[in-house]
Amino acid sequence: MRDLPSKEANLFREILKCYELKQYKRGFKGADQILKKFPEHGETLAMKGLFYNHLDKKELAYEFVKKGIRHDMKSHICWHVFGLLYRSDKNYEEAAKCYAHALKYDKENIQILRDLSLLQMQMRNLEGYVDTRHILLELRPQNRQYWVAVAIGYQLLGKPELGVKVLTTYEETLKDLPSTPDYEHSELLLYHNTLLEEVGDFQVALDHLDTIEKQVCDRKAIKEKRAKYFLALGRLTEAEAAYRDLLALNPDNMAYFEGLGKSLGLGGDRQTDEDEAKILEMFKQLQKEYPRSNAAKRLPLRYATGEAFVKVSDEYIRSMLRKGVPSLFVNIKTLYTDSAKQAAVEKLALGYLVALDKSKGFDHSGAVVEPPTALLWTLYFLAQHFDFKRETEQALGYINRAIEHTPTLVELYMAKGRILKHAGDHVAAMGALNEARELDLQDRFINTKCTKYMLRADNMAEAEKTAVLFTRADIPNPLNDLVDMQTQWFSLEAGESNLRQGQIGRALKRFHQIDKHFNDYTEDQFDFHTYCLRKMTLRAYVSMVRLEDQLRSHPYYVRAAQDAVQCYVRLFDKPDGSESEEMEGMTEAEKKKFRSKQRKAELKAQQEAEEKKKKAAATAAETAKKAGGNAAAAAAAAVKGDEDPEGTKYTKCEDPLGEALKFLQPLQQLADTRIETHLMAFEIYIRKNKLLLALKALLKSIKIDANHATLHEQLVRFALAIQKSSSAKTLKPSVKAVIDKHWSELYGIHGQDLSAFNAGFIEKTKDQGSVAHVISAAMSVYLIDPSKNLTKAEELLFSIEDEKKFGQKRTLENVILVQKTLKGFKSARQQEWKAKAGVWFPNAVALK
After folding, report:
1. For residue 267, which of 282, 252, 247 has the smallest C-alpha distance?
2. Which ranges of 389-503 would DSSP assign to H, the alpha helix?
3. Residue 800 burial (CB < 10 Å; 0-12/13-18/19+)?
């Protein structure tokens, strides 16, 4: 409104109101009216740019806003609008700079301060957030949200005691307290109590809880906190009563049972026979009180040992088999970490099977005849049990017998598919899951499982056909619906399937989809920074913020990042795509045949893509026609479809390692405690010849797990890289000085002697029976001197034959990894290994 006559100033106010009401076209017309008379009015130019932005004309938006700033550099409105423009493009750092600049010209502007604080929370600039919220609090001390925001800022900074002071001061200013429980005030009081809990003064927190109890709506939260505080204060009798009160509300809550056990002084790590007898007696009484509680029946199995375990597990397993509970094995497989319990369960289940075959009961007395389904569920349980032990033939025997008994039960085919998957026969596993799917075509879960198994069998065409059965039918390309619904499992499994088939571009396209999903999750929190303060959902809000801070450590993202880094590393190592992993060790004739097969596959994929476009165009035209729309336009849009189905833009990138870093950096910020983060970092930095960053990655990995198998191999490769740089005289003295300073942390007493370092590793890990460590040692031996150490490396790998040491530790995955390692060595003993591995895993397709 600077330098405008009253008529235009009023019109400018209307423009601002149009923006608030999202009436962008009307506001745009108003801005044009002002600019006809005052074409150089900076604030109107900026607002016109903002309207352009909401009309999806980005270039014009930036042009007009920058023009507005040039004409009025000292207008807080111009700088605020520039910040809003950057914020809409998710460029939060530049937006925050613009807001800060705006505040130079209007230090007490409430809206700009609020917008700045939102950006500071989104970027986790918590110190700045607290400072900004303090300014808002001083300007509007009567506003509850500003008090709460300051408290939350202090809590997230790790200073909950200051948050307590802020809330105490605010509560002292309240005059008219609600006479009946009010939800928002209730949440504020519970949040205050949570801060007291984080401070660690449980007596004060308990006293506060007693004070606020009548004003709190969430009665369950009050009871849970009281029980927790009694336990923390050592007031065990009161804690016991509190937990028993909670169990009456929910007798299947595991945490309540654990709290009750602790209040009775039971359930610790060191359990005596007397403790065991007491805890089993406690659960016996609880089972009488809550006969329908599954937790009261299941938990005694965790604490019982010896004959007592046999007795309680016998009762539990019989009742579950009698009822026909499919999840029985899942419920008790956590007990299998104790080999004695595993053996006891196996003995019981085999006994049931023999008895059911002879007398139709769980024992040979014949006194009780079990329902016919008891035999079915016993066979199902035994199949899962032996699959867990990786005794495939026995597992298949039991599941096939169960299928003969009841050939229409979906769970049996799913179990068979899982057994075949673990045995390495992904094609047969896919067939079993497809049979399960066809038994119940309305079940989305089974459809999803079947799709996943198809992808693991690298049958992409069938997987896509199956997946779209439960997507929207009214869109041209149903597969896009999976992306819109953020179906991460599909993107991940499809990407890994593409990677196995050497389709790097397609794989990267899938992994970038997952990266986008996680970026969306991060962006989606923005609106909650204001919503949660307004609605007073404070405990849930803090929980969400903390979840977002470690969101990238989710297994889906870590897997996608590892796979994407692997793809980009492969592109860096072999930029022309020649000599791919599948072609290693092939003769020239075999390579020629392989390339010909790849070309045919690519041609077939192109033809299928064209057919899909035609079908999509026809579907879109038909749908548009029915809806009364433009059929030709809809068909044209559908034909356009995916302009890069092969992911060429990813494979043709100029800096593969730079792209790999984009996946790694979020993990370095938000999943710094995972060793996978630093192992990936090393692979990137060592190739970029960033030796100090590679050193930093190694040091962080050592802090997390100094005994990690992959870490040992990376240490050897790092030392070899340093030796090579020193020989070539390319190692800068300053870099060498830093590396020398940390050398002993990496290699201990062995110094520069890599052979001695590797020998020490072999000696240290020889009794672990770890196949991964043997592979790492063999790889390291080979890397130290490939020309001399091949035989020694082969001997190390073949030591895995030792049944006594490795019989229980060998898995299909690490046996295949040994095979790939021998292939990398170009060893003459590859077929010998394949023959031995085929005996251990006769169903594995990869070993045939």
Report:
1. 282
2. 392-405, 410-423, 426-439, 444-456, 460-467, 478-484, 488-500
3. buried
Does residue 448 belong to any structural domain of this protein? no
Q: How far is CA 689 from CA 564, 675, 718, in A?
A: 20, 21, 10
Of 186, 202, 223, the one marking the end of a domain is: 186
Domain count, the chain: 3
Residue numbers of the domain that contains 504: 475-577+648-667
Look at residue 275 in the predicted model and tell me its pLDDT.
85
pLDDT for 474 equals 76
Of the candidates 705, 698, 682, 662, the one whose C-alpha atom is nearest the C-alpha of residue 552 is: 662
CA distance linking residue 14 with residue 12, whole number of Å: 5
Q: Do 661 and 723 reside in the same domain of the chain?
A: no
How many whole angstroms separate alpha carbon 563 and alpha carbon 572? Answer: 14
Tell me the pLDDT tens digit for each residue of 673-706.
999 999 999 999 999 999 999 999 999 999 999 9
**How far apart are the C-alpha atoms of 452 and 446, rounded to whole Å?**
10
Distance CA 568, CA 650 (A): 9
**CA 233 to CA 141: how far, in whole Å?**
37
pLDDT lower than 50: segments of the chain: 579, 631, 633-635, 637-639
Chain segment 569-604, per-residue pLDDT in tens: 999 998 765 545 555 555 566 656 666 666 666 566
Place of tokens 């016996």: 284
Q: Are residues 128 and 179 in the same domain?
A: yes
Contacts (Cβ under 8 Å, ≥6 apart) of 441: 447, 469
Q: Are 738 and 799 contained in the same domain?
A: yes
DSSP state of 215: G
Q: What is the pTM of this model?
A: 0.88
Do 531 and 487 sit in the same domain of this protein?
yes
Alpha carbons within 13 A on the beta-carbon side of 113: 19
- Measured CA to CA in angstroms, residue 239 lies from 229, 248, 251, 260 at distances of 8, 14, 16, 7
Query: Which pLDDT belongs to residue 315?
Result: 93
Same domain, 64 and 116: yes
